[in-house]
């Protein structure tokens, strides 16, 4: 405490006064129901076509808008499925999926998928019309087919793009072995009969990847895809990833150079605020249409439009044109630092489902060691790994001391929920609610040690270390405190909080971070002052 007192005296000379809260955050307009939107413009109207609602037999609903916010329903592409679809699949699909619309060769070409859910018994079809204002859709038949037990790819999620020479290409695929690409004949809209090469453009080795969309910018082709799981309402963990290539057929790689055929992808959008599971996007010029699951509306699927900008050769998505839902883009990324060893909680193998959680030597930029403490209600959080988007869980829900801790997709069960219980001097125990057992390294070891759960232990203290710039707001996320802040560790569980690059510290004191049982955090200052806040990603 003598060292801490000396440091505190130094910063008191240049202390930041109390920062007043800023104005309330904007409120969003109501977005329309949607899945898998595709976007195009004719005249003054933007047209959006979406996946139909399962069981309602609405085969590719259409709506239009002049401002990309207020939409009017105009009908469907099909009243009933074309006979060839039923004949090929052997069933009548309840709806069609994942349309993609483009204008070429004097017509609007709409590609769509029909399938049996959870199988790759699937077809991609084509319909055309010369106008969207008064459409007369013509069924052009089957473009591509995959059959269960025969192919290792799935003929869904079509996307058409053009290379710089004007050649048309069809991207498609999903689980199984990922995404493929075939050349199209732009005159017929069907597969080329002269170039039959199937290009493998992205894969996660059977894990969740789908929804390709390709655009060209600054000498690069950019492949947008969706990782992880849609269609689970508020529990969806869908997210948008991207890679780039000099050639439209690949190879595509992410910003770190990892090939997308080997699981690579740079994250450009993930769930935050009321936007759960955003994904399945369609790039149209500088616009990105996608769906999400509305946490404020029981997880209903909604459509959203964002603008694309480019930063250092990579796409960045704006907040929705219809309005944001509060400040920030989700919980701040943090490292969870072990008190006894100074090692950090880590997805040490950088793996996915089933990968063990261990302690690891701290590496500041390693995203496998960074977590989001996502609010799951009643003061409980999930520990969501930044690299994998998977959550820490008591593996198999084992209710015993020494239970293994691994990671898995979010399943909304108590094996995956934790409460941060304050200990002393800013340290906390990370307690699972199943039987009150807390995380601790096996044998109280350091880096490389497996993390397990124990009811009682001498080495269960961790501190929350925010990574990079952080936003502070009130607990309701309606008022923002200052601009951006950096948390610099001082000693024990205490931090200096200051604007990036500034020498002055918030309120002229050091702070510890304590989790509230109702959600959010209490910043407790050495000067006795407290603030109840959310810690958010800018």
Automatic annotation (TrEMBL):
> Which family does the record claim for this protein?
Belongs to the glycosyl hydrolase 43 family.
The organism that produces this protein has a lineage beginning with: Bacteria, Bacillati, Actinomycetota, Actinomycetes, Micromonosporales
Top-rank lineage group of the source organism: Bacteria
Which SUPFAM superfamilies does the annotation name? Arabinanase/levansucrase/invertase, Ricin B-like lectins
Q: What is this protein called?
A: Family 43 glycosylhydrolase
Native organism is Actinoplanes subglobosus
Give, as in the UniProt entry, the pathway in which the protein acts: Glycan metabolism; L-arabinan degradation
Which positions carry the signal peptide feature in this UniProt record?
1-23
Listed A to Z, the keywords are: Glycosidase, Hydrolase, Signal
Presence of the UniProt keyword Hydrolase in the record: yes
| Keyword set includes Chloroplast | no
Instruction: List residues of the Ricin B lectin domain.
Output: 367-453
Family matches, as CDD domains: beta-trefoil_Ricin-like, GH43_Arb43a-like
Query: PANTHER family this protein is in?
Result: ARABINAN ENDO-1,5-ALPHA-L-ARABINOSIDASE (PTHR43301), ARABINAN ENDO-1,5-ALPHA-L-ARABINOSIDASE A-RELATED (PTHR43301:SF3)
């Amino acid at each position: 405490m003598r060292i801490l007192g000396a440091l505190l005296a130094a910063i008191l000379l240049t202390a930041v006064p109390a920062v007043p809260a800023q104005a309330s955050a904007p409120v969003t307009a109501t977005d329309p129901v949607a899945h898998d939107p595709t976007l195009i413009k004719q005249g003054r109207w933007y047209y959006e076509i979406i996946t139909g609602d399962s069981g309602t037999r609405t085969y590719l609903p259409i709506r239009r808008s002049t401002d990309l916010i207020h939409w009017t329903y105009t009908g469907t592409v099909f009243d009933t499925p074309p006979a060839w679809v039923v004949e090929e699949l052997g069933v009548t699909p309840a709806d069609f999926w994942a349309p993609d619309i483009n204008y070429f060769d004097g017509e609007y070409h709409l590609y769509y998928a029909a399938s049996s859910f959870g199988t790759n018994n699937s077809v991609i079809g084509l319909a055309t019309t010369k106008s969207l204002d008064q459409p007369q859709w013509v069924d052009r038949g089957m473009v591509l087919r995959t059959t269960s037990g025969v192919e290792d790819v799935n003929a869904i999620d079509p996307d058409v793009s053009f290379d710089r020479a004007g050649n048309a290409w069809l991207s498609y695929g999903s689980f199984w072995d990922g995404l493929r690409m075939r050349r199209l004949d732009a005159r017929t809209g069907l597969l080329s009969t002269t170039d039959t090469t199937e290009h493998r453009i992205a894969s996660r080795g059977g894990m969740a990847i789908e929804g390709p969309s390709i655009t060209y910018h600054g000498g690069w082709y950019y492949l947008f895809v969706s990782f992880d799981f849609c269609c689970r309402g508020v529990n969806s963990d869908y997210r948008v990833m991207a890679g780039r290539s000099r050639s439209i057929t690949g190879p595509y790689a992410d910003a770190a150079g990892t090939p997308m055929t080997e699981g690579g992808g740079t994250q450009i959008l993930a769930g935050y605020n009321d936007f759960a599971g955003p994904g399945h996007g369609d790039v149209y010029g500088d616009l990105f249409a996608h769906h999400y699951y509305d946490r404020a509306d029981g997880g209903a699927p909604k459509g959203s439009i964002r603008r694309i900008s480019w930063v250092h050769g990579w796409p960045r998505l704006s907040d929705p044109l219809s309005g944001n839902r509060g400040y920030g883009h989700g919980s701040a990324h943090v490292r969870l630092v072990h008190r006894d060893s100074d090692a950090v909680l880590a997805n040490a193998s950088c793996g996915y489902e089933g990968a063990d959680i261990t302690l690891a030597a701290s590496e500041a930029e390693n995203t496998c060691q960074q977590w989001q403490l996502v609010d799951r209600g009643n003061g409980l959080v999930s520990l969501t790994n930044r690299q994998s988007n998977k959550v820490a869980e008591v593996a198999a829900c084992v209710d015993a001391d020494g239970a293994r801790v691994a990671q898995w997709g979010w399943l909304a069960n108590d094996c995956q929920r934790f409460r941060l219980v304050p200990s002393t001097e800013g340290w906390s125990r990370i307690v699972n609610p199943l039987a009150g057992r807390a995380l601790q390294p096996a044998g109280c070891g350091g880096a490389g040690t497996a993390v397990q759960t124990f009811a009682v232990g001498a080495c269960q203290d961790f501190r929350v270390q925010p990574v990079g710039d952080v936003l502070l707001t009130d607990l309701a996320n309606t008022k923002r405190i200052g601009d951006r802040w950096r948390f610099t560790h001082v000693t024990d569980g205490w931090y200096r909080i200051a604007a990036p690059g500034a020498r002055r510290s918030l309120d002229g004191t050091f702070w510890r971070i304590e989790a509230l049982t109702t959600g959010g955090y209490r910043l407790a200052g050495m000067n006795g002052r407290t603030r109840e806040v959310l810690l958010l990603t800018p």
